[in-house]
Inverse folding.
C-alpha cells in the first residue's frame, strides 16, 4: 500500500468542457486570445444543453476522482441553457461522490436580440442573459450548499452587472469567481475591480494583472500555455495563489508538475515547496478536502519533490466523508463504462451541433 494524502482541490474548472475533446476545428485558425474565445469556447458553451452539461460534469467528476481530486470549484457557462444548469452539475458530481462548488459565469456578451459582441460597453444596461445568470447563482446559493457568484470576465460585463454580482455575493457571504486579465483584452480589469474585490473572491489567471487585488489568484499554467496568453508568474504577486486547470481535466498532481516546470523555467533556484504552498492554499478554499483520504500506488506520493518528478502516480483508493468512492483505481458509485459511453453520445451530439453552427 502506498502513501496517503488528503484530497486535492481543483480551484478553477470548467466541467462543461469535458466533452470538448475531439470537437470540430473552428471555422478559422485563431490568431489571438480573443479569437480563441470567439471561435472555440464561446461557440462551445452556446451549443450546450442540460443533457450535455450533466454527462460532461459526470465524466469530469469521475476523471477528477481517479486523479485524487476530491473537490472541484467549477465555473459554468451555457447561455442557451442557464436555468437549472448548476443543479445538474451538482447532481452529476454528487452521484460520483465528488464535492463541487458551483457558479454561473454571468455575461452581457449576448444581447437581448440573440446576437453577440466581443466586448461590452461598461455603460450599457444589463442584458436579459446576465439577469438569468444572476438568478441561477441565487438559486444555487439559497440551498446553502457550496456556491459562489460567477462572472465571466470584466470585459464581457457592464458596470451594472458587475455591481449586481458583487452585491449578490455580499448578500450570501461568498466571493465572486471571475476571470481576470487572462489576455491583453482584459489587461485593465484591475481598475474596474479594485473597489469591488474582496478577500473571498477568486481571481482567475491574472496573467496580465497590473496590480494585486483582494482575493486568491488562481494559476492555470497548462491553459495559459494552450491559449498562448503568457506566463502568469504568480510567485511575483503578493496575493495568495491556488492552482486550477481552467477546464483541462482536474488531475492536480499533473497540473502541479506543469506549474513546477514553468516555475523552474523562469527561476532555476525555485523550490517545489512553492507549488506545495499553492496546493495547500487550494485546500484552504475547500477545507473538507483535508478530511478525505487518498491512497496512492507510490510510497512517496506525500512528498512534493517526489510528486513533481514522478509522473504516472495514481490513487488506489479514495475515501470522501468516510465513504469509499474509489477502489482499485475505479469509482464505486457509478459504472465508469456507462459514464464514458453516455458522455461519448452527448459529445457526438455536441460536435454535430458545432458543425452545423
Amino acid at each position: 500500500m502506498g502513501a496517503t494524502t488528503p484530497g486535492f482541490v481543483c480551484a478553477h474548472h470548467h466541467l462543461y468542457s469535458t466533452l470538448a475533446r475531439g470537437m470540430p476545428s473552428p471555422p478559422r485558425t485563431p490568431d489571438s486570445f480573443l479569437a480563441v474565445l470567439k471561435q472555440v469556447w464561446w461557440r462551445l458553451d452556446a451549443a450546450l444543453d442540460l443533457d450535455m452539461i450533466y454527462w460532461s460534469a459526470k465524466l469530469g467528476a469521475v476523471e477528477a476522482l481517479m486523479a485524487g481530486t476530491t473537490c472541484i470549484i467549477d465555473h459554468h457557462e451555457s447561455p442557451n441553457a442557464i436555468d437549472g444548469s448548476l443543479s445538474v452539475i451538482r447532481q452529476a458530481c454528487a452521484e460520483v461522490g465528488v464535492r463541487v462548488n458551483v457558479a454561473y459565469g454571468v455575461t452581457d456578451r449576448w444581447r437581448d436580440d440573440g446576437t453577440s459582441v466581443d466586448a461590452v460597453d461598461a455603460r450599457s444596461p444589463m442584458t436579459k442573459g446576465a439577469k438569468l445568470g444572476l438568478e441561477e447563482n441565487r438559486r444555487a446559493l439559497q440551498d446553502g450548499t457550496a456556491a459562489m457568484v460567477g462572472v465571466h470576465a470584466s470585459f464581457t460585463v457592464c458596470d451594472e452587472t458587475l455591481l449586481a454580482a458583487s452585491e449578490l455575493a455580499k448578500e450570501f457571504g461568498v466571493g465572486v469567481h471571475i476571470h481576470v486579465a487572462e489576455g491583453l483584452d482584459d489587461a485593465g480589469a484591475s481598475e474596474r475591480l479594485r473597489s469591488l474585490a474582496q478577500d473571498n473572491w477568486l481571481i482567475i489567471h491574472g496573467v496580465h494583472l497590473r496590480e494585486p487585488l483582494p482575493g486568491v489568484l488562481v494559476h492555470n499554467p497548462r491553459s495559459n500555455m494552450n491559449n498562448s496568453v503568457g506566463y502568469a508568474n504568480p510567485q511575483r504577486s503578493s496575493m495568495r495563489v491556488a492552482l486550477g486547470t481552467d477546464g483541462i481535466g482536474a488531475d492536480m498532481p499533473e497540473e502541479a508538475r506543469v506549474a513546477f516546470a514553468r516555475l523552474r523555467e523562469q527561476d532555476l533556484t525555485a523550490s517545489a515547496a512553492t507549488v506545495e504552498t499553492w496546493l495547500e492554499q487550494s485546500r484552504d478554499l475547500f477545507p473538507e478536502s483535508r478530511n478525505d483520504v487518498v491512497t496512492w500506488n507510490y510510497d512517496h506520493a506525500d512528498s512534493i519533490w517526489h510528486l513533481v518528478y514522478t509522473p504516472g502516480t495514481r490513487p488506489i483508493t479514495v475515501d470522501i466523508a468516510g465513504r469509499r468512492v474509489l477502489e482499485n483505481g475505479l469509482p464505486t458509485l457509478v459504472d465508469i463504462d456507462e459514464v464514458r459511453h453516455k458522455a461519448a453520445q452527448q459529445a457526438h451530439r455536441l460536435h454535430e451541433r458545432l458543425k452545423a453552427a
